[in-house]
Amino acid sequence: MNYLRSATLAFWTAALPLAACGQAPALTTFPVGTATVTVSALATNLNTVWELVWGPDNYIWMTERYGRISRVDPATGQVQALLTLPDVTPTGESGLLGLALHPQFATSPYVYVVYNYTASGALKEKLVRYTYSAAAGTLTAPLVLLGNIDATTSHSGSRLLVLADGTLLMSTGDAQQQPQAQNTASLNGKILRLNLDGSIPANNPIAGSPVYTFGHRNPQGLVQLPDGSLYSSEHGPNNDDEINKIEAGRNYGWPNVEGYCNLPAEATFCAANNVREPLTTWTPTIAPAGLAYYNHPAIPAWRGGLLLAVLKNATLLHLPLAAGGQAVGASTGYLSTFGRLRAICVSPQGKVYIGTSNRDGRGAPATTDDRILVLENRAYAPSATRSAAAPSFDIFPNPARRQATVQLSALTTRLAVCDLTGRTLRELRPTGLAAQLDLNGMRAGTYLVQVEGSAGRVTRKLVIE
Hints:
This protein has 2 domains: 4-20 and 384-464, Immunoglobulin-like (Sandwich), CATH 2.60.40.3080; 28-376, Neuraminidase (6 Propeller), CATH 2.120.10. The chain has helices spanning 10-15, 264-272, 384-389; strands at residues 4-7, 28-32, 35-43, 49-54, 60-64, 68-72, 79-84, 96-101, 110-119, 122-133, 138-150, 160-162, 167-171, 190-195, 211-214, 219-224, 230-234, 241-246, 280-282, 288-294, 305-310, 315-322, 327-328, 332-334, 341-346, 352-356, 372-376, 393-396, 403-408, 414-418, 424-428, 434-438, 445-453, 456-464. The relative contact order is 0.14. By secondary structure, it is mainly beta.
């Protein structure tokens, strides 16, 4: 029978100090209020990073426009390629776009992606669900949930977002067919809402239709706040890029309205068609892309605001929210020396991950582009009490074969070995400062070792050869 054995090995505590976590070299630093943010590169030599999602497995899930889906280890930067889509059409702005993960990923390991493909000589767009195998490191069993959406080599959207109610949003561009954005029978120029099995929610604004909002030109950012508020970033034509507050059933004006309802014809249309004006606009345009919400104490000046990755103006914008989220204050720009920025996600530790898009045909790629950049306050510690009590540990050897030793910095309440979906495979309650893991019978692959103490949980990777 496989088991975990605990033993007190006091002499190891003095002889083998815990390994310090290495930090990547700083590329630059900049002040944000009283904090100093350090920028480093997590991964390099990528190709048009389109989406970054922080997964429940504590890995970053990434799409690249030419069709590759990967997991990225935030500790090492190692890129684990899972699948390159066989039918993706990466032409112009088209290709593999947004990604989302099922909210119950441990029991329903589904990965949702939206991408462009070619059917009967025409460019189309579809939403596909894949099933992830942590043991095999693969995505299989593609299931098309929504397809045959008109597309062109520009204005395809498309961001995916799982809402707190367990439904899925998908943004679509107008595919250069501007009048279709106002046609609720068309799926172009919309934000769509589906159940996670692809069916249509019974409480959608239009019965039997996936259309959630309409009148969009090319929305490429979606985020939901803890209070349920939804925001989107949207590309304008040569004027009026927008940040919108998304409300079910509302019309966002395109192509009859560009930006605010501030021209006579626009004001008439807005009054007659329930148009929701943007919170803010940019003229000249900046090309807004990925959108995230930041509310972590690591960078206090960003708390409670939106972070926007910008392509054309090649910057990261902080957008403070005001009036209960009904307005956006004056923006502040950062990170202006790394080229086009498209993807963004925030980790539970308050680190911000940015994907560059310099190999998309419109940038000037550096030798290591495209990159995932990490923005962090390296001086931040949660609290003196928590830092002192937080469990820490080392595993050796790693990679391991039949057994490994976990060396603890302090007594802990629980030690577990989990698969990459978070499912507990083995567990014990250590009674000393070291625990021996019997790995016999476990398949080769990557696992997670979790140590829990009074201050929280710490996870490290274990590779079994």
